[in-house]
Design goal:
Chain lengths: 235, 800
């Protein structure tokens, strides 16, 4: 009997551990500050506003419950419907690259779980975010409202069209890679505005590309390839 | 031990049926996994599953008496179990607790367990059926020639039969249909008095097969596959679905599907919604209609359009035309005559049925050739000349992470480019496009390849013939037969300025114009480009951290860039985690080989605890059966590759080669009853095989190249002539060896069967690895070498 009970206990503990359903350690703030220090600041991101926002947003509330114990790990996580929540470093990098300011109005394409929008909303005046998958748009809206992010608006629509009603935008953050940059997004970007877009799959090598608009001239800069950690060509 | 005396026709037939079902099932599983996951993971899972052959040998060696004394019941019982397993394991593998997702393997440790369970599940039918075959072989080792012949001929027929089934049934329906075959095979073996347990099993298994026929399992695609993602969007639907030997093709409508790869940022129009075509769940292109002027217009805003900006093109050849985007671009640019080549007849069928509008392939100015691009190039050499040849895009958007590392790219080999060169008019040009990648690999290999060809064609200064331009996501290379004139260079510059693209290579390129609009992540790409164009390019190409050497027909892996010697440097630069993501396909191949090798060693050693370790004969049996297992697979894999190039149709060529080899080998096996084991005849068979393989490694490639333009029927006849005699001989060593072992040391017979199974499974990834590193010729030499080793063992054992 004792043996059977022991085996049962082992099975329960193992299966709980494997499925990631163990409750998150109680010290969430320290996990978050460790994430900021070890995964973000140590890799060269020193924009104070970005670091503060990354330290403030409760990332574990934006991932599926079964993956909460991995929320602050240095990797992207699946959120269903073939979508992911980017790893913390990428969110921070994309945020810092657009050089966000308090008076900015930012458009995000691909709301996903709403995490990137929440980080942006900690810094800028207004965030508009568009998500094409209804289930994700709905859950992100509820989550963001529930967490008190009042300056974020979510639209269930095709990101191709952007959100013309509130254009032009100081910056556009595209979180889902596409093999072309939709012309309406270029049009809705302010003169002097910046757009950041990942090229490639979230689980493989992505190249973050910065698009800058100066009058009729649009230039692109391939910033860096990333996976779980930044790849940098050494000397 | 009681056997079927004389060897019963029922046993031979049921063995043949079982073997045919087994190979058909293997091919179906490959398709199922390619649809739900990806091809490279399918390869790994199937390789692990095929270890069931090795396991059967081990189990039989350990419990030989148990199985052989009950063989009259065990054979139909195992066949019945095989039928039940074949019908149901795919359904079990789709259960949410078992289903794995390749993408999540790198982020969720539990996925590894699910991958293991899936592989184990798929191994079961291979194990039970191989056990049945093994029992038959052990019980009738003296008549092995006939049995092995039935086994090989059945396998060959199964390979051909399943190709036919792919046209009429969907992948989820096929496992249950194939399961009927072993069920029938088991019924064939039943005597008048059937044990009640066996009867129950037949009813149960039959019931499961029947259930699965009525209610086939739904195949659940990885949520990261393109088709699944498209269908996640509201109002999306599958308009048309067709299965074929090329794979499952779906036409999907979705309000989120748009097509404009690498579109210029200067484009201000609308990118229209299109219907997309997906092959095994992966995007292959849009379904284009001539009425869709928007798509045609936006194609003019991609880097490919530079070929038309240079000057007028009257005759254009589009190779591997696919869904027709390059044809549409050619028509949009007013090309007088377009020749389009596409081998996938099923794809064309879906495009035709998918709507009312006229597809680009059927425009009056377009002539469509349904055949492989390489045979077309070979046959067109004396009849046509073109002002532009458009090659299919290289790589995938955002970089392929090495996924395609093991795909043979016969259109980018030096031989192919030289053949294309001869098809160009004096002012003609080749157009090759690729997506930008990091670290740079695809553009560098393209440039190295075209420079190699230009030099081989006597062009002293390749720089005068090459132009390359870059957008934010893609690059296009133009390789012109005559030097690029200043007028053409001016046209390219104007085109780039209008499109916000940058010229990277022109005969008179200026440093400041190379990254005006699109700044590269690493400026040294330009330095590398210039280095490849310099006279001392060899040192640069040899010294680069990735393999960017031009590829050849003997080593046709364009997307394989990994150099073993660079692995420490790459790990240091990109981190250990970065490796699989840079060269995933190759890493999976090595990983598969290591897993199988470890498992095979265990499976081979285990029976020795029972048989004994010190027997000299054991080591000879190990070497002999290991060698002939490896040799057979090595030759088969090389021939498949050669005939894919020859016929231009991967699937039919592979099936035809496998089936013909097996059937011819079956004939060979049948003839062994007239050959004395250990005699001069057996030795001369192995000698002849080794010599024929050596000869083949030298003559097959040139012979196939010279006759590639011949009509298909003539080519088929030549192929049989080339393959037949060798395959007949290669079917002999296994039955001869097994008969010899049965005479002298019967307990070793099941062990020999297991060794042959294990080594055959290892051989497939091993041959690919050798081909990737050294080329197919070396694989052939290795095959000759292992047959020579088997010969040496036979010589030592010649007394019996």
């Amino acid at each position: 009997m004792t043996k059977t009970r022991f085996v049962l206990m082992v099975v329960v503990v193992l299966s709980a551990g494997l499925s990631g359903t163990l409750s998150l350690a109680s010290d969430v703030p320290s996990l978050r500050s460790a994430m900021v220090k070890d995964q973000i600041r140590s890799r060269g991101i020193d924009d104070p506003a970005t670091l503060k926002a990354m330290g403030a947003v409760e990332r574990h509330l934006f991932v599926p419950e079964s993956l909460r114990s991995s929320a602050y790990r240095d990797r992207p996580l699946p959120i269903g419907h073939g979508q992911t929540i980017s790893q913390p470093y990428i969110v921070a990098y994309m945020t810092s690259v657009i050089q966000p300011r308090e008076d900015f109005t930012v458009l995000e394409i691909g709301t996903g779980s709403g995490y990137q929008a929440a980080v942006l909303s900690e810094i800028v005046k207004r965030v508009y975010t568009v998500e094409i998958i209804p289930e994700l748009a709905e859950s992100a809206t509820k989550r963001l409202q529930g967490l008190g992010y009042a300056n974020v608006s979510v639209s269930r629509n095709d990101g191709y069209f952007g959100w013309k009603e509130y254009a032009p935008y100081d910056a556009i953050v595209v979180t889902a890679a596409a093999d072309f940059i939709p012309p309406p997004l270029i049009e809705q970007l302010k003169d002097g505005g910046r757009m950041i877009i990942p090229v490639g799959s979230p689980f493989m090598v992505q190249t973050l590309t910065l698009v800058e608009k100066q009058g009729d001239t649009i230039t692109t800069t391939a910033l860096m390839p990333v996976r779980f950690v930044p790849f940098r060509r050494g000397n | 031990m009681k056997g079927y005396e004389p060897l019963s026709w029922r046993l031979l037939c049921s063995l043949g049926f079982l073997s045919s079902a087994l190979i058909a099932y293997q091919i179906v599983l490959m398709q199922v996994l390619s649809i739900t996951q990806w091809h490279h993971f399918a390869y790994m899972v199937i390789s692990l599953a095929l270890l069931g052959f090795g396991v059967s040998g081990t189990v039989l060696a350990l419990f030989r008496t148990f199985f052989t004394t009950r063989h009259e019941v065990m054979l139909p019982m195992l066949m019945t179990i095989t039928a039940g397993l074949m019908a149901t394991v795919v359904r079990f593998s789709q259960h949410e607790f078992i289903r794995f997702d390749s993408f999540l393997l790198f982020s969720e440790p539990t996925q590894l367990a699910q991958l293991f369970i899936t592989s184990f599940l798929f191994m079961l039918p291979f194990f039970t059926s191989a056990l049945a075959i093994g029992i038959a072989f052990v019980c009738h080792a003296e008549r092995i020639g006939m049995l092995y012949s039935a086994n090989l001929a059945g396998s060959g027929a199964g390979g051909l039969g399943v190709i036919g089934l792919f046209w009429v049934l969907f992948p989820e329906q096929l496992p249950a249909v194939i399961a009927l075959v072993p069920l029938g095979a088991s019924l064939l073996l039943l005597d008048r008095r059937v044990p009640r347990s066996l009867l129950c099993l037949i009813v149960l298994s039959g019931g499961m097969v029947f259930l699965m026929l009525l209610n086939p399992p739904a195949l659940i695609l990885s949520e990261f596959k393109a088709a699944r993602k498209a269908l996640e969007i509201p109002d999306s639907a599958v308009l048309l679905r067709k299965n074929s030997p090329y794979g499952q093709i779906e036409l999907i409508t979705s309000p989120g599907l748009r097509y404009a790869p690498g579109l210029s940022l200067a484009f201000t129009g609308e990118v229209p919604v299109i219907n997309g075509v997906f092959l095994n769940g992966d995007w292959i292109g849009p379904r284009l209609e001539m009425e869709e002027h928007d798509t045609a217009k936006l194609l003019a805003f991609t880097t490919k359009a530079v070929a038309y900006a240079m000057g007028e093109r009257l005759r254009v050849l589009v190779l591997d035309a696919g869904t027709g985007a390059d044809i549409l671009l050619a028509i949009e640019k007013g090309t007088g005559k377009v020749h389009a080549v596409e081998e996938n007849a099923a794809l064309l069928g879906v495009l035709l049925q998918g709507g009312d509008g006229l597809i680009p392939h059927l425009q009056p100015t377009v002539e469509l050739f349904i055949r492989g691009s390489r045979p077309y190039i070979a046959s067109a050499a004396s009849r046509h000349s073109y002002e532009l040849i458009m090659l299919p895009d290289i790589g995938t958007f955002g970089g392929g992470s090495g996924i395609g590392a093991l795909e043979e790219t016969y259109l980018m080999t030096v031989e192919a480019l030289e053949q294309m060169w001869n098809l160009l008019s004096p002012e003609g040009a080749l157009l090759v496009s690729c997506y930008r990648d990091y670290p740079s690999r695809n553009p560098l290999r393209i440039l190295a390849s075209v420079v190699h060809v230009l030099k081989s064609q006597g062009m002293d200064n390749p720089r005068e013939h090459i132009a390359a331009i870059s957008g934010w996501a893609s690059m296009s290379f133009i390789v012109k037969k005559s030097p690029i004139s200043s007028r053409e260079a001016g046209n390219i510059r104007r085109f780039c300025a209008e499109m916000l693209f940058d010229p990277l290579l022109l005969p008179d390129i200026m440093p400041e114009e190379r990254t005006r609009y699109n700044r590269l992540m690493e400026e040294d790409l330009i330095v590398l480009f210039d280095g490849i164009l310099a006279p001392d390019r060899g040192a640069l190409i040899r010294g680069y951290e990735f393999d960017i050497r031009p590829i050849t027909d003997d080593r046709p892996y364009f997307s394989q860039f990994l150099r073993f010697r660079s692995v420490p440097d790459i790990v240091q630069r990109y981190g250990r985690q970065g490796m699989p993501f840079l060269e995933l396909g190759y890493v999976i191949l090595v990983f598969t080989l290591v897993q199988i090798a470890v498992a095979a060693v265990i499976l081979i050693l285990l029976p020795l605890f029972r048989i004994g370790w010190k027997s000299e004969r054991s080591s000879r049996v190990l070497v002999y059966f290991g060698c002939i297992g490896i040799g057979y697979m090595f030759v088969e894999i090389v021939l498949i590759s050669k005939f894919i190039l020859y016929f231009g149709n991967a699937l039919y060529a592979a099936s035809a080669v496998i089936s013909c080899m097996l059937i011819f080998s079956g004939v060979g096996s049948l003839l062994t009853s007239r050959v004395r084991t250990g005699g001069r005849g057996a030795l001369s068979i192995l000698t002849t095989i080794a010599l024929m393989i050596l000869l083949g490694s030298v003559v097959i490639s040139p012979l196939l190249r010279e006759t590639m333009s011949f009509p298909v029927l003539v080519k088929g006849f030549l192929s049989l002539l080339l393959m037949g005699p060798l395959a007949v001989l290669m079917g002999m060593p296994f039955p001869l060896g097994l008969r010899a072992v049965a005479r002298r040391e019967e307990p070793l017979v099941p062990w020999a069967w297991g060794i042959n199974g294990c080594l055959s499974v290892i051989s497939a990834p091993a041959a690919t690895l050798i081909a990737v590193e050294f080329g197919f010729s070396v694989v052939m030499w290795c095959a000759a070498g292992v047959y020579a080793a088997a010969l040496a063992v036979s010589w030592l054992n010649r007394k019996y």
